[in-house]
Amino acid sequence: MFWNKKRKDGFPFTTFFLFFLLVLLSLIGPWFYPQSLYKTTNEILLPPSLQHIFGTDIHGRDLFIRILFGARISFGVGFSGSLISLLIGVTYGSIAAYAGGKIDRMMMQLVDLLYSLPVLVFVIVLIAIFENPLRTFLFHSHLESLLPYSRIILLLVGLGFVEWLTMARVVRSRVLILKESLFVQAAKVLGQNSFKILLKHILPNIAGLVIVYLTLTIPTVILEESFLSFLGLGVEPPSSSLGSLLSDGANAINPVKISWWLLFFPGLYLSLTLWSLNVFGEWLRDKLDPKTR
User: Fold this and answer.
1) Which residues of 33-53 are buried (b: 16+ CB within 10 A; e: fewer)?
2) Which InterPro entries does the annotation name (predicted)?
């Protein structure tokens, strides 16, 4: 973080460029890399070399190409889950604050109740209950191509539906202040309805705050997805995410041979992603959140 502050409040170019590079690699890297994602070979557990820059796994598959495709899934879950939490949190928090009174108290009591539930346990139970019904639905809907991603879909839904709680609280606290402001009172006097006031006057004034918390939610969702995939609750083989690659690396460790690259490179990719997002999110918070000024 220290080299990102060459000047006071300077843009963290290094970390932003790093995150952009990691995302770009995951999106277009496989097109230019000669190795196959699913092809198994006899080159089992080879260390990094010019032919396999990150080495190979226990099935002889190139680890670099697997990390790139795994990062796609992790990024996809992170961004999609964060957008779901954004839509639910902003809508719920703004309605609760603007309605006020008993409605506000009842809605926020529900948030407090959901806060008491362990997030990861909730997602695990969700997967256990709905995985088979979802697979059956996808099969009968002729969406067999999505069957290997049924757990990822449930992960996406589960994480999105629990990560909105903080967003709702933050949005509610800001809307409670804004709804008493003069420009909102003027809009009421002019006869504008509540929906129009929220949409045109209040939500644009909390956009900066929402962007900040969205940026900080993305690494949280990515980390939770990686942890659940590490436990074997993520994408099904032969597909992979960064978490499942870390799990494969941990399972490959034995007293006879320690294939360090199976843990080091997926962990490095994940760590750099989370670090760059958190640093960029902190910079956005300093710039866009009035409370930190």
Assistant:
1) eebebeeeeebebbebeeebe
2) BP-dependent_transpt_permease, MetI-like, MetI-like_sf
